[in-house]
Amino acid sequence: MIKTKRSLGQNFLTDKNILEKIVNIVPIKGKTVLEVGPGSGNLTSFILNKNPKRFIVIEKDNDLVRYLDEIFNNQIEIINEDILDIDENIISKEKITVFGNLPYYISTEILSKWIVNLKNNFWFDHLILMFQKEVADRILAKYNTSQYGRLSILANWKLDIKKISDVKPQSFLPKPKIDSTILYFSPKKKYHELVDPRNLEKVTRVFFNHRRKMLKKPFNQIFNGNKNVLNKLKIDLNLRPQNLNYEMYYKLTSEYEKLTC
User: Fold this and answer.
1) Alpha helices, DSSP H only, in 73-214?
2) pTM higher than 0.85 for the full model?
3) Within this chain, do residues 160 and 45 fall inside the same structural domain, yes or no?
């Protein structure tokens, strides 16, 4: 009997209808597949039934690694490490289809890391990820809404995002106290080029540290009152951070890079 560990944010997905829905989002037969946090192997079994060419799982919990190794034997390759410590760009030479019921307490950190580390060539072709519903709503949020912020801007920079469905607590063991959401991410063909994605993180952090205040203060903090940038982008400094759309933050980051890089 596998016991979940609260310290690792473990809630195992057990609903067969949801598991079936997840593995049918994209074709994976003959593909290289990565599952992050396989837990007790419920989704792992469904993925194997779709006959991937290569199947890698990343699991931090030593007890679960031993259990998965016994259950699946040589059908999967197990990486016994923390996902945050792994360079995802070197996991496979082929593009990967990624599945993950991400631990809620580090889900935004995982997604942000993957986006910031994206090279010119994407290391994945699809991401099918489960988040706490509140986090998913922030990822999907549009400007001029209260949920819009740094995560929305970062996630939508290089990725097209689609909501698949919400998942109720009773679909998990143990039951979480909140609803979850399945999101599907795919690489954009066109996106705003940046020198270093960490600059997008910096710009958005400064602006959204003052999300309830007008844009004048964060703008001056980043650009030191540079009127050339202000006139070029035609920004009204009486607005608030949530009033600027994704593209404006990408443009702001480009202007910041011109001044600093």
Assistant:
1) 107-116, 133-140, 150-158, 197-208
2) yes
3) yes
